[in-house]
């Protein structure tokens, strides 16, 4: 389901790292410079994003580049569409119920 | 792309009447799901529905905020590990000339309500860029 994406993006710093990567691919060193967080912490955030299917890795020589995987956001979009339809349907039922109810 | 679902709906009936449909178990069950809700902060309750796929049909909730006839917020945890959806549902009511304007926000990120300034335009601009990328898939 959608939980991996949500878990991956639940942390504010991790979301910020993800956002930063929407500007283009970057190395751990470059990301560490942009955030007030240690290099191991950035690496951990990247690992979580990768586990959530939100980030992909490219190796070039001794550098590792991280970039976003837009397709990883699909479960988030599906979740939104699913619940939007669910709630709209229920609101219609609520309206019908209110029309049947006696006034206070 | 947004990170939370927002639904606005104009309803007949006063906020007092609509409030009852949100907080009285029998009335709430009539349009949503069987439940044991009580409008008290800290109250834990469960929505029960028919199981579907790998969902056991229950949603675990805890009341987080109550302002009678104005606002009701509870956590909304559905599914089962590892496919657990941890989210927050907030209902806001406002009187109108003909009844009540009901506003629902269902957020997939519990910490959105902790005041972290991530809801700003900056995120939306970036989200727009992500949406563009998504459209190219």
List the helices and strands and how they pair.
The complex is a heterodimer of chains A (104) and B (137).
Chain A: H1 3-9, H2 12-21, H3 28-34, H4 39-51, E1 55-60, E2 63-68, H5 74-100
Antiparallel strand pairs in A: 1-2
Chain B: E1 4-12, H1 15-23, H2 25-31, E2 44-48, E3 58-67, E4 71-78, E5 85-95, E6 99-107, H3 121-135
Antiparallel strand pairs in B: 1-6, 2-3, 3-4, 4-5, 5-6
Helix pairs in contact in B: 1-2
Structure overview:
The complex is a heterodimer of chains A (104) and B (137). Chain A has a two-stranded antiparallel ribbon with strand order 1-2. The longest helix of chain A is centred in the last third of the chain and has 27 residues, at 74-100. In chain A, helix 2 crosses helix 4 (39-51) and helix 3 (28-34) crosses helix 4. Chain A has helices at residues 3-9, 12-21, 28-34, 39-51, 74-100; strands spanning 55-60, 63-68. In chain A, strand 1 (55-60) and strand 2 form a beta hairpin. Chain A has five helices and two strands. Chain A is elongated and about 70 Å long. With 137 residues, chain B is of the alpha+beta class. Chain B contains three helices and six strands; from the N terminus they run βααβββββα.
């Amino acid at each position: 389901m959608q939980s991996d994406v949500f878990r991956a993006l639940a942390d504010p710093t991790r979301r910020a790292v993800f956002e930063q990567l929407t500007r283009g691919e970057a190395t751990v060193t470059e990301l560490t410079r942009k955030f007030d967080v240690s290099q191991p912490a950035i690496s951990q955030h990247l690992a979580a994003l990768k586990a959530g299917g939100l980030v992909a890795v490219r190796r070039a020589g001794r550098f590792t580049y991280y970039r976003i995987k837009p397709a990883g956001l699909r479960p988030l979009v599906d979740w939104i569409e699913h619940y939007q339809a669910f709630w709209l349907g229920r609101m219609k039922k609520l309206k019908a119920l209110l029309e049947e109810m006696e006034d206070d | 792309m947004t990170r939370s679902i927002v639904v606005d709906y104009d309803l007949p009936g006063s906020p007092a009447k609509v409030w009852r449909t949100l907080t009285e178990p029998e009335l709430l069950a009539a349009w949503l799901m069987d439940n044991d809700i009580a409008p008290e902060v800290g109250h834990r309750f469960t929505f029960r529905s028919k199981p579907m796929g790998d969902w056991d049909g229950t949603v675990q909730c805890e009341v987080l905020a109550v302002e009678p006839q104005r606002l009701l917020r509870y956590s909304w945890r559905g599914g089962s590990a590892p496919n657990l959806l941890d989210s927050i549902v907030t209902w806001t009511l406002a009187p109108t000339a003909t009844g009540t304007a009901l506003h629902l926000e269902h957020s997939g990120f519990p910490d959105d309500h902790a005041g972290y300034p991530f809801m700003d335009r900056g995120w939306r601009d970036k989200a727009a860029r992500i949406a563009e990328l998504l459209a190219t898939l």
